[in-house]
Amino acid sequence: MNVEKQVFEKASKKKAKNGKGNGNGNGEKLSRKDYEAEMEKLQVELCHLQDWVRHTGARIVIAFEGRDTAGKGGLIRRLTERVSPRTFRVVALSAPTERERSKLFLQRYVEHFPAAGEITIFDRSWYNRAGVERVMGYASEEEVEGFLANIPKFEQWLVEQGIILIKLWLEVGPDEQERRFRARIEDPLRQWKLSPMDIKSYSRWYDYSRARDAMFEASSQKAAPWHVLHSDDKKRARLNGIRHILSLIPYEKVKHHKPDLPKRSKKDRYDDKLDLKKVRLVPQVY
C-alpha cells in the first residue's frame, strides 16, 4: 500500500472511531461542505484505482443489491462521475425479453463481465433471482433453490479466474423506505424512478427480508462474502460504501509522466472563424 493511501486510510479510520460515518443515521448531521470534501478525496482514490486497473489489466465486478429506494443509484453515480465510462462500466439490465428468457439464467449477465483493465458495476445483478423474482413470483421455488445451490460454485470459479468480486447490499429501514417512496410519488424529478412493480413490492417488506436472509445464508462465502451497508443516511452511505470498496482492492498509485504541451503549428494557417451562414448558433439564454 502506498504512503498516500495509508494516510487516506488512517484519516478515514479516525473519523469512524470518533463516531462519524456510521451510515445508520445515528450520527450527527453531515454538512454538504464536509460531505463534498470527503467525496473529493475518495474520488481521487478512484482515479488512482482506475489507473491501476488499466496498468495491471485487473478485472473487477461489483454487484449492488438492496431493496427499492436503498440508494444504489446514488452511490453508483458518485462512484463513477469522475472516472471513465470505458473503464467503469455500469450495467442495469431491464426485464428479460422472450429470447433472453430462453438463455441460461446467468448468460445475460456473463456477457457484460469485464475484460482486462475494466470494472463492471451491476445495478442489480444475478441476485434478482433470489430477490425480486422470488418475492414477486417470477421464478419458481425450484428455480430459486437451484440458483442458491449453484451460485457459490460459480462465484468461487470467478475468483479463481482472477476476477475481484465485490457484493454490496444496501440496507434501508422501513420508515426511511416509506419516506423515499412518498418523495418519489410527489417529486416530478423522481417519479421516473417509480415503477408499477415498485408499488407492488412495497407491501412485501417481510417477504423481501426472508429472501434476503436466505440469500445471505446460501451465498455469503469466504471467496465472495456479502458486505452490508446501512443506507438510511445517504451521504454517509455513499462515503462509507466507496471507501469500503476501495479497501477491498489491492491497488497502488501508478506513477505518471507529465507531458509538455507542444507548440501549435502555424503551418497551413487560415481564418478558421465559423461561417454563420452555414450553421445555427445555440441561443445564449443563460
Q: Would you kindly provide a written description of the structure presented here, covering whatever features stand out?
A:
With about 290 residues, the chain is an alpha/beta fold. The chain has one domain (about 5-245): 3-Layer(aba) Sandwich (Rossmann fold). Helices cover about 45% and strands about 10% of the residues. It has a 5-stranded parallel beta sheet, with helices on both faces. Helix 2 (about 30-55) runs parallel beside helix 11 and helix 3 packs across helix 11 (about 235-245). The longest helix has 25 residues, at about 30-55. Mean pLDDT is about 90; it is low at about 20-25.
Q: Give the overall form.
A: globular
What is the assembly state of the chains in this entry?
single chain
Low-confidence segments, given as residue ranges, are: 18-23
Strand order in the sheet with the most strands:
2-3-1-4-5
Supply the key terms:
286 residues; alpha/beta; Rossmann fold; five-stranded parallel β-sheet; 11% strand; globular
